Every structure is written in C-alpha cells, then in structure tokens.
Amino acid sequence: MSGGWGVGTGGSGRDAADRSSGSDRDAHVPTSHAPAFYFLDLPGYGYARASRGRRTGFRRLVARTLDREGLVGAVWLLDLRHDPSVDDRTMQDALAAAGTRVLAALTKSDKLPRGQRLRRADAVRELLGLDADQAIVTSARTGEGVAELREAISELVREEGT
Ligand SMILES: Nc1nc2c(ncn2[C@@H]2O[C@H](COP(=O)(O)OP(=O)(O)OP(=O)(O)O)[C@@H](O)[C@H]2O)c(=O)[nH]1
Ligand SMILES: [Mg+2]
User: Fold this and answer.
1) Closest ligand 1 atom number to CA of residue 140
2) Which of 110, 137, 141, 149 to mutate to test the pocket of ligand 1 (most atoms within 8 A of CB)?
3) Structural domain harbouring 119
4) Stated pTM of the model
5) pLDDT tens, position by position, for the chain (162 residues)?
6) What domain count does the chain have?
7) For the chain, which terminal residue's Cβ has fewer other Cβ atoms within 10 angstroms, N or C?
8) Is the CB of 2 under 6 A from ligand 1?
C-alpha cells in the first residue's frame, strides 16, 4: 500500500497534570489540561519486495513500537481504493497480537468519485474487521475527513488519560 502509518503516544499526559496542579496551587495560573502526545511516523512497509534483512528490521521496529509504554493507539493509513494487501494483513496481525487500538484512515478519497467512497470504506472495513467508528475516509488533498480523524485521535488520547 502507499500509505505510511503513524502511532500516537500519550506518555506525558500524567506529567502535564502534575505540573498544572502545582502551578494552580502556587500561582493560580490557569493551565491547560490538554494531554501532551506525539506521533511516530513509520516508514511505508511494502516489504514483500524488500531484502530479508530489511524485512526483519521492519518487523522488529513494528514490534518495538507497539510495545512502547504509553502507546495510545495506531493510526493506520490505508489507500481507500485497494483491498488490504498481504503486507496489510501482516500489519493487522501485529496490531492484533499487541492489542493496539486502531484508527484506520482510509486515504486518497479524492481519487474516487464521491458515490464510491462509502462503499469502498465499508468493503475495506469489513475485510479488516473494523467497527464503523474505527475507519475514517480521508483526503490530504481536499481535507475530507481530516477534522473527524483529528477528533477521533483526540478521543483516543482523552480516554487514555482518564
Ligand atoms: N491525491 C492524493 N494524493 C495523496 C494523498 N495523500 C498522499 N498523497 C500523495 O501520495 C504520495 C505519497 O504520500 P506520502 O505521504 O509520502 O506516503 P508515505 O506512505 O508516507 O510514503 P513513505 O513514507 O515513503 O512510505 C505523495 O505524492 C502524496 O502527495 C491524498 O489524500 N490524495
Ligand atoms: Mg511516509
């Protein structure tokens, strides 16, 4: 597939809460309680064509990433136009094995006529066994679904912090 995938982590959420309670007490400074988080952008896989060494390296990178303390979930970028590839299935297995929460961003919606987008989304979602609210049709070109994706990520991060 042509999409990479990113993983959000929320390791510093508690630190932010600790800091703000201190400043609240000492100086009555209004503080933001927004949890801090960041994204890791993993390289695209396509490793069916890569050397054995690179495949092993990539598998380790994924395993280590999914094992990170404070990992909130994975944003999995999948091209809306294509059914999941063998590599996608391998990634699905890794995500399932690690018990990672997944948001699927079904990308490049601008490349499909409007009428086909939801149909394709349902097909991909069903092939991957994802719930309706786990898959979001997006386009970096038109911005379709980007606000919704942002909100879904915020929700994941918020849930992790409670
Ligand atoms: N039309 C369209 N093109 C897109 C969209 N998203 C990404 N692209 C294009 O697809 C190509 C690849 O995008 P990248 O974001 O580099 O993909 P990637 O999977 O991160 O690539 P690697 O990190 O190299 O594996 C670029 O030419 C982007 O401009 C989209 O929503 N619509
Ligand atoms: Mg990339």
Assistant:
1) 31
2) 141
3) 3-161
4) 0.80
5) 333 333 333 333 333 334 444 444 455 655 666 557 899 998 888 766 888 888 889 889 999 999 999 899 999 999 999 999 988 999 999 999 999 999 999 999 999 999 999 999 999 999 999 999 999 999 999 999 999 999 999 999 998 876
6) 1
7) C
8) yes
